[in-house]
Amino acid sequence: MNKSLAKGIVSIIKEMEYADYICSVKYVIFFVSKILYDIKTSGRDILTQGYTRYRSTPNFYGDEPNVFKEHIKFNLNDKNTEEKIFNLISLSIDKNPMYSPAELYEILLTSREKKVLGQVYTPYELIDKMLSQVFRIKGINKKLKILDPSCGGGYFLAESFRRIKSKLNDVDDKYIIENMLYGIDIDDFSIFLTKMSILFISDSYDVHFNIYNLDFLTDDINIGNFDIIIGNPPYVGHKNTSAEYKKILYEKYTDVFYDKADISYCFFQKSKKLLKYNGILSFITSRYFLEALYADKLREYLKENFSIVSLSDFSGKTTFKNAMVSPAVITLFNLVGNNNQFPYVKYINDKIESFRYDQDKLKSTGWIILKDADEQLFNRINAISNTFIKDICNIKQGIITGLDKAFIVNEEIIKNYNIEENLLRKWIKNSNISKSDIKYNNLYLIYTNLIDDEEKYPNTINYLLQFRDKLSNRRECKNGYRKWYELQWSRIQSDFENPKIIFPYKSKGNNFCYDEKGYFCSADIYFINNLRDNINYEYLLNYLNSNIFEFYFKCIAKKVGNGLYEYYPNKLNNAKIYLPTEKQTQNISDLGKISIELFLKKMFNITDEEVNIIYKYNEKG
To answer: Does residue 161 sit in the same domain as residue 257?
Structure first.
């Protein structure tokens, strides 16, 4: 991509007076593509005639249906902007400009716009690896049919075109485009980008594209069956999916989709129906399906309906620009075989770990994929552990204020507004927690749910009045469930005032800390309380912080970006620990962490070699 051209276009867009930034970007790319396509087909001489003459060409966008005519709605007909673009291109491009409309689109969209649109583009390195694998398996011949069901900017299809063209010398570009490449996307501008991405690397101009503006999951797809289905389906969680749309998916995709599942799971089931026998499915998707609670049906579906060709797990590492998603690449045969082993590749920091794994050992409760020695150790710990955490305690979330800016105050604000002292509670967030202590930073929560009469607390009410509009706009207040000054989710006061074990909901390792000072905590902290009568807080705390339990938990935990693990209740509740007998408890001197480690090492028959496995596993994350 010409850097000076991209930089100049950014400046032109900033000068446009349209309120809708995304609309402006689409228009600019539409017109840039038109000029550069005309240069490709007619030569650079069109620039010498100047903008006015160029733009006055009869039927500027063509008489017959073509890509520009089909997508004319992106044209804003802003002559001032068009002339700036024309002049910029005249000054900044060579005879044969290297141009990718999708790449330009990616450059022009800020991270905020990408988040709004839900668009994440696949890095070329991953596209290259995925296509190399599927073409190595299926080969390249003129009968091959390839589908990208969420084609986005057309990266997969454009690169497929390049590879097919270089391999099949006796087949022209028109044939490849019209008979071998298929794409679907719900976004109409993505359809334009995909078509143009292919046209700019093709020698054919008058072609019929099999690129359709459809919803792959809900529309009828009547374009035959495919040898290869490949792509990067969208990751859309339950919170960003409408109730109406979810209802449709529940009915159509009962094998993989329910409750809080991600809609990307449905792409696997729909693709299965469109694959030929022995066809190949290769998706880059969020790695969370390996452990996520609501992906159990998907995991079972994949195991029972495909043979896994390979699985690459980026293990919490993010590979996409401006996206927190940690991906996995899974390639599947539309064929069920017995005793299938697949290569599992795990990217850990800057290292790569690779080994083969038996598909039959995968469980719907979570794909715990470990080396033989690690797996034997985990299985032994799991078998000897005698109690689920959920059976000995409660795990609860901290407080959701609904507006921290209003309810969390420092000593200066307390003094300036003379906020009533009996409403104040010491406040901590997850960054204050470590295994050894709680680093309190002198912040307080105004626990307004104690207010039984506004007139008794005039100073607090007076302070909160400056936030009243925002507070009143919270969902629970608008629905009449909360008074405007109350906390959104205040929880149970005594839960915070009594002893508890607190821990951050995301962490690089086990960070459980005992709190007997009655700290109130934010929603990014969870806590353990209400221990069963015969359970000792100190034993449980040291157990949870032990190296052995950290190894065990990391084997089953969901790993997210930046080396972090999730410590949500659904996973922690179903983890197992070992509760000692009364006699064993007496033998654990002082109940200290070192003593617990020695006790557990003996209890689980852990060898010195396995101690090294535990330390290395915990260290690498």
So the answer is: yes
Does any domain span residue 116? Answer: no
Q: Are residues 446 and 586 in the same domain?
A: no
Of 345, 321, 373, 65, nearest to 206 by C-alpha is 65
Claim to verify: residue 513 and residue 537 sit in the same structural domain: no
What's the pLDDT at 93? 72
What is the secondary structure of 39-81 as a DSSP string? HHHH-GGGGTT-HHHHHTSTTTT-SS--HHHHTGGG----HHH
Nearest in space to 446 (alpha carbons), one of 472, 433, 469, 465: 465
* Rounded Cα–Cα distance for residues 556 and 566 (Å): 10
- The answer to whether 85 and 31 have CB atoms below 8 angstroms apart is yes
Same domain, yes or no, for 355 and 408? Answer: no
Question: 118 lies in a domain?
Answer: no
pLDDT digits (tens, 9 = 90+) for 105-159: 988 887 776 666 666 678 899 999 999 999 999 999 999 999 999 999 999 999 9
Number of Cβ atoms within 10 Å of the Cβ of 203? 10
Smallest CA-to-CA distance from 334 within 424, 229, 263, 442 is with 229
pLDDT in tens, 545-562: 999 999 999 999 988 877
Residue 106 domain-assigned (yes or no): no
- Euclidean distance between CA atoms 354 and 377, whole angstroms: 19
> What is d(CA 608, CA 586) in angstroms, rounded to the nearest whole number?
25
β-bridge partners, 308: 332
- Of the three residues 530, 547, 577, the one that is the final residue of a domain is 530
pTM, two decimal places:
0.88
DSSP code of 480?
Answer: T
| Domain end point (choices 530, 547, 578) | 530
Per-residue exposure over 185-196, b if at least 16 CB sit within 10 Å of its own CB, e if not = bebebbbbbbbb
Total residues belonging to the chain = 621
CA atoms within 13 A on the CB side of 307: 15
pLDDT digits (tens, 9 = 90+) for 187-238: 999 999 999 999 999 998 889 999 999 999 999 999 999 999 999 998 877 6
pLDDT: which is higher, 248 or 204 = 248
H helix or E strand, kind and range, residue 457: none
Facing residues of 285 across strands? 328
**Amino acid type, 171:** V
Predicted confidence band of residue 321 (pLDDT cuts 50, 70, 90): low
Do 363 and 375 have their domain in common? no
184 with 149: CB under 8 angstroms?
yes
Cα dihedral value 381, 383, 385, 389, nearest 10:
100
- Residue owning tokens 């990391």: 554
CB 81 within 8 A of CB 12: yes
Q: Which residue, chain included where needed, has tokens 């700019």?
A: 200
Residue partners of 246: CB distance under 8 A and separation at least 6: 238
- Residues whose CB falls within 8 Å of the CB of residue 443, separated by 6 or more in sequence, listed in order: 408, 409, 410, 426, 427, 428
Q: Which domain holds residue 597?
A: 371-393+532-621
User: Could you write out the DSSP letters of every residue in 319-382?
Assistant: -STT--PPEEEEEEESS--SS-EEEEEEEETTEEEEEEEEGGG-BTTB-----HHHHHHHHHHH
Distances from the Cα of 336 to the Cαs of 33, 95, 295, 308, 331, in angstroms?
Answer: 45, 52, 20, 9, 14
| pLDDT of 323 strictly over 60 | no
At position 208, the amino acid (one-letter code) is H
246 and 158 inside one domain: yes
